[in-house]
Amino acid sequence: MTLLVISPDYASHLLPLATLAAAWQDAGESVVVATGPATADIVADFGFRRAELVLGRGSNPGVIRAEQQPPGEDEALRGFFAATRHGMVATLRYQAEARRNDLLWEPVDRARAVLDVVDRVQPDQVIVDHLAFSARLGLAAAGVPHADVVLGHPTALPVGDEVYGYPPAWPAALTPSTPELAALHRLCRDVRDDFTAEWNAALHVLAPGATPSTDAFAEHGDLLLLNYPAALHDPARTTLLPPHAFLGSAVRDEPAGDDVQDWLAADDAPVVYVSFGSFLSARGDVLATVLDALRPLGLRVAVATGSATGLPDVPSSWLLRPFLPQVALLERSALLVTHGGNNSVTESLTAGVPMVLLPFSTDQFAGAAAVEAAGLGTALDPNTATSADLTSAARAVLEGPAPHLARSIGDGLRRAPGRDVARAALRG
């Protein structure tokens, strides 16, 4: 038996997919990962075979920097970072406009490249990242059965009257005006229609007799795998989903290096772990405010600084590195301060750790709203929150019911690892 995993060339996408695939490997089955060169080391570390497949212009081996992207993609990344400084609506508008060009990159050519990999590998089962639209287009056009893995918040697959790119919920701290939201909704509808037209044009080339899509963002595989805890998902929305399974999380084993192990062993005091992920660590100004806010708490602090620059001096007892083993540190943490990316949220909940969230973009707003609604943390506006605001928020989370609630969620997620749920779901 052979499992084929199809992933964009981004570490944040491949790591959870590879974690799921490890269940097949542990059962003695073969795993082939089709992805680009930037994440080849991750494939090798998991011990999988690799098939070369480039699905987009950009890549991210773990920490993304604009200067390491190809021409055009570097400017797009800088534009995105600039938009985040203007707030939620400006960022979502920038991302909506970018979707006109980046989610279906060379769709016919990339779809055929995917099918070429399928022909060579001859897999028994296929799992593919939901955001790999060109790959899913090829699989759908050729009628290749596959499981579609939503690695972000479940709203990445719109249902009902939802429009892709327009958050169905956002935290109380973010209060865009009604006219701003109305204009954003119109833009997202226009982009959806343009994207669907592009999808249908490529589909017609690949499979001339195929039924056109009415909303390409709502297309999905034969089975939907949601990397998200069912307990945080609105039951009414769940009834609208196609055949699916909630994985809870896809948390990998991640041993800490000697320096991190030594730091953890030096003191058993509670740890605050801080990370804005591989992209948004570029917002060093917000990260600097967070570091100032954590000083009065008197706790140990570990910070994944990513590409951030201009950070203030911090106590010598703190641990700062461009990259840290997040899973290992969360196992010792009392609090996570995060941008609210889905990997960070689900990994934090699996460890039973509450959160202070500073959402910047895409599904981070819906994810932060869900965390707040479940009493697992609190969210602030990253562009307006002061260090005093963040100190108060951290204290309130640590001293309130969130730690107990997070531990309860974590107990359930650890009892049913997402990798095992995924394999069982595909085996029927």
TrEMBL record:
Is the keyword Transferase assigned to this protein? yes
Its source organism is Nocardioides glacieisoli
Against Gene3D superfamilies, the record matches this protein to: Glycogen Phosphorylase B
Q: Which domain of life is it from?
A: Bacteria
Which family, according to the similarity comment?
Belongs to the UDP-glycosyltransferase family.
Q: Which GO terms describe its molecular function?
A: UDP-glycosyltransferase activity
Protein name per the record:
Glycosyltransferase
Q: Residue span of the signal peptide, if any?
A: none
Keyword Transferase annotated: yes
Assigned keywords, A-Z: Glycosyltransferase, Transferase
Extract the Pfam families matched here: UDPGT
Q: Name one GO biological process term.
A: antibiotic biosynthetic process
